[in-house]
Amino acid sequence: MPRRQEPRRPTRRPPRAPPRPSAAQQLLEVAFRRASLVNPHGQSKPERDRRRAELKVVRAAATVNRQLRLEARDLRPPAVGDFERELLDRRFGSGRVERSLLRLRRAEERIRGVAREAERAVARASGAEELGDLVRQFYGRLASFVREVEPDLLALRAARGYLRDRPHLDDSSPRLVVAGFPNVGKSSLVARLSSARPKVADYPFTTVAIAVGHADLGFDRLQVVDTPGVLGRQGRANLAEVEAETTVRRAASVVLFVLDPSASSGYPLEEQEELLERWREEFPALEIVPVETKSDLVRRSTDRLQVSAKTGEGLEALWAELRRRFVPRAALPPVQEAIEEVPEPETERPSAPRRRRTGRSK
Fold this sequence. Notes:
Layout: H1 23-36, H2 45-73, H3 82-92, H4 96-124, H5 128-148, H6 150-164, E1 175-180, H7 186-193, E2 211-216, E3 221-226, H8 239-251, E4 254-259, H9 269-282, E5 287-292, E6 305-306, H10 315-325, H11 335-339
Parallel strand pairs: 1-3, 1-4, 4-5, 5-6
Antiparallel strand pairs: 2-3
């Protein structure tokens, strides 16, 4: 006898989460909620009604404008320098962030203007109903201005998040930018030279964004910048390669170009040499120091520095070369001269003239 099948119970779908309010809605909700909390004083109800309407207009406009300034604060000088500005242009399009900042500034000006108009209208109004109509009209105009710049709010938030994921480079300290093809040992070398602890793996494009560590030059604090690998594909570079080339061009005091002659990276030495020569032609004023890594795997006859981040071989010679390339900002004497400095001989001071006695002698 066939087994009787029980009817399937309808599966209950979990309730959908309410849609998240947009950036403009969030901003307006905060402004309108703060405006609704005003509690004015006055001798009579008409006076309190008028004062309440004025305060709602002023507080709503001030809250929105303050938030617009906060959205733009971290993307204006001095928080953002030339290097960060070019990174943003290369990532989001030339001038995209600047245009959004300009539209937010114009929105602030328009909001201040309509707020002044609403205040004058409230001062002339009579009756609670007319005052309520004026406040609602102002809220409507305020909301339309905020919704107009919502795409700019989203663009600026994306730009802030992008910069937040990248280290801030100090303009007052020298920068050593470590660059080259993927998987040639850049991150391992950065970990040897500085306090940075970048991710090191045996596959290309492990580093997808710049990272910075610090080292002591003895007279300056050196910023050591690790960059993503660059394949030298002109016009076909991915975002990580674009970021690396921008860092080389705009942020480097000296570039440490890392080459791997062992072929363990998967890229022929000839291709790496081509990128090195192209950068020398494109950036003639930039100091580029080539160094060959993985000397524990292969050594060859060359005038270049050869190092091994694994064994530490050649690092002392590399540090000596780097100290020779970086000039201290302050005019400090060499250490040996400061130690052997001979004090100047003391000259005999002329004796002070004897004071003449003016009183009577006893």
